[in-house]
Amino acid sequence: MSDVYAARRSLLRDRCAAAGNAAALITRPANVRYLSGASPLGAVLLVGPAEDMLFCAGAPTGEADEGRLDERLDVSVLGSPGGDPAVAAADLAASLRAESLAVEEHHLTVGRHRALRSVAPKLRLADLGTAVEQQRLVKDEEEIACLRIAAEIADQALGELLESILVGRTERHLALELERRLVDHGADGPAFPTSVGTGPHSGRSRHRPSDRRVEEGDFLTVCLGANYRGYRCEIGRTFVIGTSPADWQIELYDLVFTAQRAGREALLPGAAYRDVDHAARSVLDSAGHSEALAPSTGHGVGLEIDEDPQLAPTAMGKLDACVPVTVEPGVHLPGRGGVRIDDTLVVRPEADGGPELLTITTKELLAL
User: Fold this and answer.
1) What is the rounded distance in angstroms from the CA atom of residue 246 to the CA atom of residue 181?
2) Which of 126, 151, 175, 182 has the smallest C-beta neighbourhood within 10 Å, fewest atoms?
3) What is the rounded CA–CA span in Å between residue 90 and residue 177?
4) What pTM value is reported for the model?
5) Judging by DSSP bridges, how do beta strands 195-198 and 74-77 pair with one another?
6) Can you tell me the distance from the alpha carbon of 304 to that of 247, in angstroms, rounded to the nearest whole number?
7) Quick one: which of 277, 282, 266 has its CA closest to 355?
8) For residue range 123-163, what is the model confidence (pLDDT) as tens digits?
């Protein structure tokens, strides 16, 4: 992997040089990990004209949540407590007589930006923008392999839950059990706070589990994801508690399923982000549910659970191959509940079989 990280930094270095910047200061944790293999708490990465260095407030621990650091990368641990690694990195860049330093202005606080200017007043600070995020969009096969394992772990955890007795248990209890099962199956932890919604809470996006208990006749919506070596997937399913779903539940489920399938089938290289959103959204719009829809019907995943691209009505851009995204339409009817169906897929060309589905738990309307 050292060669991979070095190649990523080299590409960023070339982009900085083309923009007239001698070095880049990376402060966003996911970007630090992408370029160095690890992101110790508070660490920043200086990508210099000749060599690169990771600055840390404390020595890297090597724990799984930090990642595995590129062993070829130089590491500087601040000697004094309370120091700012970003300030130390800017100070080094200035001492090397760099004229300009590209920084992630969208991540820096105003106070930190001022501190950089104070320590290196002659250093011109330029905005790197989202250059690293754009570099992260297309995943290599090793990254996709991590996502595939994360999806397998999430599928296992969800499958085991469905085999247990659910009636009478609280949303909060079920969410905690799912997160424990993720770790039991090899995840570093949950990719995001697990959402479990029952009855009138079902179908709500990012519902925070409450003490409501599962009852016969409920819709049960579960949304969870695993974090494996820093890479995060997402899966969401809706089920019915009991043996005979009501007609309105069957009708609503079939509608959301149709919308989700339309979104999945639109995931091809060259497809506009907004067109993928429209494929799913139009099915629900035409059924009169426009008021109940989320701002987007999907998003990218990787080192963060919600990263570019955004599959939304006003999103600009087109999909590339090897971009992992979610497709997650849903409808929530206030006071009644609703349905969400959420998969993680990788965009693949039709010649390779089309979108690769990573989360494979059945999307049949099961009565539990």
Assistant:
1) 31
2) 126
3) 45
4) 0.94
5) unpaired
6) 38
7) 266
8) 899 999 999 999 999 999 999 999 999 999 999 999 999 99
